Structure formats: structure tokens, C-alpha cells
Amino acid sequence: MSTIQTASKEAKEKEEERPIIIKGARTHNLKDIDVEIPRNKLTVVTGVSGSGKSSLAFDTIYAEGQRRYVESLSSYARQFLERMDKPDVDFMQGISPAMAIQQKTTTSNPRSTVGTTTEIYDYVRLLFARIGKTISPVSGEVVKKDTPRTAIEKLFGSQDEGERFYVLHPIPHHEKKKLDEELKVLKEKGLTRLLNIEDESMVDLTTDEINLKKFKADKHRVLIDRLVLKDDKDTRTRIADSLETAFQEGSGRCSIKMRGGEELRFSERFEKDGIEFTEPTPQMFSFNNPFGACDNCEGFGKVSGIDEDLVIPDHQKTIRNGAIAPFDSQKFSMHLRDLIKVAAREKYPIDTPYAELSKEFKDVIWKGKDEYIGIWKFFDEIKNQSYKVHMRVLYSRYRGYSRCQECEGYRVRKDALYVKVGDLHVGEVSELTIGHARDYFEDLELTEFEEGVAGQILYEIRKRLKYLDEVGLDYLTLDRLANTLSGGESQRISLANALGSSLIGSLYVLDEPTIGLHPRDNDRLIKILESLRDIGNTVLVVEHDPEMIKAADNVIDIGPFAGTHGGEVVFQGSVDKLIKADTLTGKFLSGRKEIPVPTKRRKGNGKTIELRGASEHNLKNVDVDFPLGMMTVVTGVSGSGKSTLVHDTLYAGIQKHIGSYNDKVGRFSDLSGMAAVHGVEMVDQSPIGRSSRSNPATYTKAFDGIRDLFANTKQSKIMGYEPGHFSFNVPGGRCENCQGEGVQRIEMQFMADIELTCEVCNGTRFRKDVLGVKYRGKNIHDVLEMPVSEAIEFFVDETTIINKLQPLEDVGLGYLKLGQSATTLSGGEAQRVKLAKFLAKTSTDHTLYFFDEPTTGLHFEDVAKLLDSFNELVEQGHSVIIIEHNLDIIKCADWIIDIGPEGGFGGGQIVAEGTPEDIMEHKESYTGTFLKDYLQ
Prior knowledge:
Strand content: 15-25%
Number of strands: 33
Helix content: 25-40%
Number of domains: 5
CATH topology of the largest domain: Rossmann fold
Largest sheet: 6 strands, mixed
Radius of gyration: 36 Å
Shape: elongated
Distance between the termini: 59 Å
CATH architecture of the largest domain: 3-Layer(aba) Sandwich
CATH superfamily of the largest domain: P-loop containing nucleotide triphosphate hydrolases
């Protein structure tokens, strides 16, 4: 190696060892901090909520990496860079190309699925196009194109030597030509003999008179050659020449008729059993492409029609006991009798619950057979009689969205489902969970030729499935809609995609990747991040989970508190040193500070809500009692069925009973005890507003009181200002250039739009004269820029405002600015803003509150505050049901319902119920195992 190459290599190695240096970072609440992040290491940024972790990781480090990337783009993109906000920092060095993996649902596109998001479906389409075998639905045989060579192989393989045979092709048929014209053309070509394949009689076109009315063209073939089967070179050559001529003259079709025997048909076209199939291409399997999408449902898999869950409301009922609701009446019971007759004849079980019936019998129930009409045809007849009022009423009772009958809900065109790899078509592969798909593709046996054609495609599919499995998403199906995923699931899919791309030398910035993960799966996630680090990447993780912090090579603790009281680096170094450090994180990790276990568990008010026969998605016909007047926590591994049970079934069922719910309710047989509840509230992680105009002040209604205060000042009265002048939502006092947004959006064609601060109001949202009105020395913009904690001190005499803001402080959101846009709040922050709104209410009615992973984004210190809020709700006489993985919340529960034992098909059962002490002793409960270790 030359001296120059050696020097270059040493310089490169030194560059790779050089840390990422940040000096003087002041983004948001950061207080001029200096940080060093070692390259190719796993660094965890932790600290209380609102201390400035995301400001450092995302708004400073990642934003600078992104800005430098944009700098390398076209001049069109770069012309906006001068006006783009640079991170407020003095100096940054060593920033690698950066990727952010955040906990936001990736898309709202109803066509996007887990398979398409991860690119697995794209590779599956390619695999089916390359090695898929088209199977004829008539004979079940593989559809192939024939050639003279394959025809000769079949002839010699199926017939004995010495046999006599004819080489033939069908009489051509052209739309504009009549039969006599076709025969005339044949005669001109010198093809003068026709063979009747039924009696092997011969017709000579030059001498025989043909009665065109009696002549059956489909029973005759044009004779090309007569031969005797001999296995020698001359005979094989002659047969090949004859077959080639026959294929050419027969428009791609020909046949060999054994004298006194069968006719062997061959086609150069892609056809079988009289059906001409489409040759597989990748586009044919795409439901996002007009060529591949089902014409009926346009690739959505569902059409407006009959809701299957309304037709069969209880999947645990049997056919005999009235599972099919419309047939369970005197008027239409004849259809049920017909079905029972068909079932008896075909040996189908009618005393088995509908959920356990075979696909074959379910197809008969819906599509009909013999004298039985079938549900689809029954409703078609009802629809045709819509001129009768009672028929319209009947049809409307069962109206909804149902699986497309044309493609059976698989989204792709019908003939795409004839193509199979292994034993499955592309729709069946999409229905597999990631765990099952991984097994299917690992076990797929290919021929040497297929391996050569599809080996690389299979490698890419297997690699991506492996990563998805390892990040704990084995329970998701490939056809699961991307817009139904939780933030944690979306983030882990992005993480698996990053691993699948195998990039090195990059900076990955992750936002709480453990969200939505049971403690059982944390180890798998940590190993994934370590492998990302080990292949040569720098991994920066914003995290609160103790296991993730302990796995870090380097920890940066931001604090000491939130908002204006945070923004400092209170610790930087190894985990061992952090445990000894005098910071909140260090104290909790070392056990010097902890969330105490309650000395006694509440017994509740003696009332329960009883849910029976819950069977939506993967729930296995479960019966659950939810005690009221206490804090109940529903636990279980990811995908075990917690959200299905609590969100889709219990909450939706109660809402439907109250009469304020129009969405779909999960299947169950009975729900009782609702009389004890006066209202229900779902406090989930959905945004408090989809508009940038929504903020904590407007959501909690504190802004109404603030605007009234400004409108009542002496200056406002002189100017004639009303409360509306201090609103950025209506014309009057707002800046009309940006219409009160504070920013202007510029479209970047092929990139995300860029937001630039409004040049007229400089982001203040209001007109200059309105900003001139001051209350205690501050204008309306200054007030909206205040953190909640500061606002409480500022409005100390204004009870109505304080009453709205104090609950935000109590749930640990004192660091949020009053005017902070709702779109910038994390899921956990949005959830706690909602909680604060409910805490501000004083109600004697018994409300049942539902919370979905409320510890998202919370430090140990904030979890303690959150628990105080839950206890306050229960003390006010309400009930709380929480879906949670956080062991601090679980250990403080009055009652636990543990679902599992696994995710997906392996879940959906009640593993254990009882107090935390009861769950700890349950050997089959993963939650119990971790709870026991945690408390000991």
C-alpha cells in the first residue's frame, strides 16, 4: 500500500473516531449548553418531560443534519435556505447524515399497509411475477406456454413407440371472415385436408363438397402431417417442423391426435381449459395500480353494501341457533331451512359456532349452493325490491361496508389470485402475520432455476421480516392498514426499515422506541439498536425506560426540571456514574428515590361492568369483569388484544349504549352493569387539535379568560377593542398576511413544505396596534409565549384562569407554552392536556375514564405526578381503566387484567386477573414475572 493510501486511511479512521461536538445550543429552552456525543456509540438522552431532550436531539442535532443535506440539493431548494430556521447553536462538528425515527403514525393513506410501508409487498409482487405458477381454477393444473420442444417431450413421455398420429391445428376463426372464406384461404395455402376428430374421417377441400350448414368447424382440425412415433433424429426433426408449422398456422394453437386415441392439445398462448390467462407481471399484483387493482373495489378490498358483522352479530352462535340474523325470522326462515338441507347433504356442521366453521362452509353460507340462495344473493333481491318501504328499511338495517365479492377482500384483480408461490396466492400471503410470513418464506423450497431467478428477492424479503420480527411486531399482518398502527408500532417499522437499508456511517435519532412495548420485548429492541450501532452508526435515543438507559454507552441527562427550569446538562457520562449522580434520573435508577407501592388496594364501590363473549379481532370469546370505583390496569404483550378489548369493545359498546357512537363496535354477546356509569371519556394520544391554531390555552378554555382580561384594560377600551381582537382565529386583531398563523407555507414540489416566519408580524400573529395593549407589562403575544408554570404566577389573582391552568401543572405539563401549537405536542403530552381538562371539571356524576398508555414520554418523576392525578379522579368517585406497560403504574393498580399470553393469534385470552400481588404469583403471566422482579 502506498504512503498516500496509508495516510488517507489513517485520516479516515481518525474522522470516524472524532465525536459529534455541539457548543452553545440555545434551541427552545436549552441554556447555551455544550455536548459531546461519541461516534458509533449508543447514546441515551434522558431527563424530566419538557427539560429539553427533544430540543437537543431533534431540533438541534437532527435539524442541522437535515439542513446540511438540503444544502446539497438543487438551487430551487437552496433558495429558501437563508430564510429557513437554523438551529440556535454556536458551533457543531462531526454531524453525519441524519435520520429521525419518530413516534408518529406514518400515513393516513387508506391504501398503505404494513407490507407496502416496509417494501415487503413490493418484493412479494416481484417474486410472484418471476416464479409464481398460474393454476387453472377449472382443472387445478399449472398453466404453461407450449413450444414444439415441450409438445414433443409430452408426446414421447405419454405414448408408445410405433403409434400413429396426426399433427393438426384448429380451423382459423376471424371475426370479419365467414367459414367459406376461411376454407378458401386454407386451400390457397395448400392445406387441403381436414380431420374429424370424433370419427377420424377425412375431408378433402379440393374434391369434397361441404355443406356449410351441417359442417361443424369445432369438430374438425386442419391436417399438417401424418407420422409414426419413432425415437430417432429424423422423426424428431420432422415432428418439430410440423408442430412449428401447426403453431404458426393455428395462431398459436395446435394438437396431436393419436390414431384411435386421445387428442393432446398445445398452445403457445398462456391458456388452459379454454381460459386465456394474463401472464404475471409485478403490476398485476399491485392494488395501487389500475392494472392490478380489483375493478369492483378499486383496490380497497371493501365496498359499500352489507356489513357482515350486522348480518352475523354473534360469531359464537351456531347456524341452527340463529347466527344469521336476517334468516332468524318467520318471513325468511325458509332460507335457513334450505341451508340446513344443503349442510346435511354436504356433511357441513350446523351446530358448531360460526367462528369455528371452515372457509368452504362460510363461502357456501355467503355465496349459496343448490336450492340455498346465499346471503349475498338474498340481499341483492331485497335491494331490487327497494320500491317497497319495508324492504328499504330491512336493507338499511344491515347496510355498511363489506368485503368485495369480486376479489374476496384481497384487493387485486381476480386472475392475480390464480398465481401461487408454494401453496398460497398473493392475497393469502398478505393475510399472514409477520411471524407466520417469516416461517413461510424461510421454509419455501425452490428449484435450482427458481433459486437463480428469485434468490436475491427472497433474501430481501427474509431480511426485512427478520428485523420486523425482532423489533416485536411478529403479530402484525402484512395487510394491516398503516393508519391503524400506534405511534410505537410505526416507529418500530421505521426502525426495521432502517436496518433493512443496511446504511453505515449515519446518525439515527429515535424518539422513545420502547413506547407500546411490554418489558418482555425490551431486550429484543435493545439488541436491534446495538446491531445498528455495531455495523458503524451513531445511535441517539430520547428515552425514559430504565432498561434502555442501562444499555447505553453514554448518557446525557437534561434538567434539572422542565421548561424554563430545565435546558441544562446535569450529567454526561457512563451509566455507572449516572447511578451515583445527584440528578432525578440517577436517584430513581439507583433506588434512592422511588414511586411507593400503595399500602392498601382500594376495594371499589362494589359495582362492575360485565363484558361477555368478546371476540373481535384476536379475542377468543373472553368474559371480563371491570370493577368500578378503582384504578384498573389492562396489561399484556404488544398485540395481545388490550386495545381491542378496551377501545373497540368495552368503550365503543358503552358509547353505543349511551347513543353517542356511530363507529363500529367490537363483537360481544352481552354487556351489563352500565347503569352504574353516567358517562365515559376516552383520553387517548390523538392530537388535541389537527390545526396549528389549537393550543393548550384554547383547549382548556383558559384563553377565553385571558382575552377578556386584555379587552378590559384601559387602553383597549380607548381603542374600542373587544375580546375578539385578541384572538388569532378571527379577523380583527390578527395579522392578515399570515391570517394569525405566524408562519407562511412554501410548497417544495417533491419535498415536504417549508414553514417560514411571517415577515409582517415576525411570528407574533397579531397586528402592531393590538400588541401595544399590555396587561401587567406584557402583550397578548408575550402571554402566549409563557410556560404554564410562569402563567400561573403571572395570573395569580385571576381564579377562573388559574383553575383552568393548575391541572396542567399538576399532570407535569408546567413547561408547555400557553400558545404552543397542538401539532407540536407528542401523543403523551396531548393525552395529559386532555387529562388536565377533565381534572378541572367538578362533577358529581360517576364517569368512567379510559387511558391509553398515558406514561408515553414521561420521566419517573412525571409518572409519580400522573399517578396522583389518577388517584384524584378515583377519590372524586370516578373509575379509571388504563392500558399500560409501565411497571410503576402497574404496581400501583388496584386491579390488573392481564391479556395474552402472546401477541396476535397467540393472544386474546385472559391470562390472569387480580391485585398486583395476585398477578406476581401467576407463573404464566409475563407481566407477573417482570412485576415480581421489579418489586423485589
